[in-house]
Design brief:
The protein is built from 12 helices and 8 strands. The protein is α/β, with parallel strands linked by helices.
Amino acid sequence: MREMILGLPVDQITYEDILTDVPKFLEGNQKMSIISVNPQIALEANKYPSVIDLLAKSTHRIPDGIGVVLVSKMTGGKIKERVAGFDLMVKLLEYANKTQKKCFFYGAKPEILQDAIKNIQKDYPNLIVVGSIDGYTKMDDHEIVAAMNKVKPDFIFVALGFPRQELWLAENMGSVNAHVFQDVGGSFDVLSGHVKRAPDFFIKTHLEWLYRSLSNPTRIGRIVQLPIFVVKSLWWKMRNGND
Ligand code: UDP
């Protein structure tokens, strides 16, 4: 089931639901596309019609932000918990490790990508890294897609930040022969060890967004996004109801 938040569809799903679906999509013909819905994307998506279209067509739109969960609760929705893109990616890596699946990593700075892959290979030795391309490559989309198709990945993780990763997926997912796609923002930075995740206290109290905004000057503007998102979403819900 999905619900509409600020005009965008978000699925009422948990980590368990998604992990249950993964093997079905790995065996079937339909592509699994996991896209994060957070206050930033909800506030800015109207500038990018293809991102709205991507969300409409995606199989799993995850409530990746406490703001989304909060608005759902305040408006009688059924979203139970935050599904954090980073945590979900880790669970998918664990799954790929257990089942020896092939993974492709696209995005982040070259040295970050290299270190992230080193750590992934160390922590998930049975997962097969079939390829990677950094997010500042001179390759065009055609070449990137060809490089992916050559190695037939099961999972593709795209870490170009919003909106580049969503725009890239909207444009290219149809041409890539892989089963599971996820947009993962700054996750390679965390996996590389170059960027630390918020301390437990902030994660447990749902204040990870605040910690990340305060600890990175380029993200400071995002502090105001959460209250703006909540107010706009409530207003939207009052005018549109559930659809
Ligand atoms: N990035 C990239 N190519 C670009 C712009 C960004 O590969 O042209 C990467 C960047 O290096 C970082 C990630 O995309 O690894 C974006 O991280 P950010 O923290 O901005 O994303 P968020 O987690 O907020 O979506």
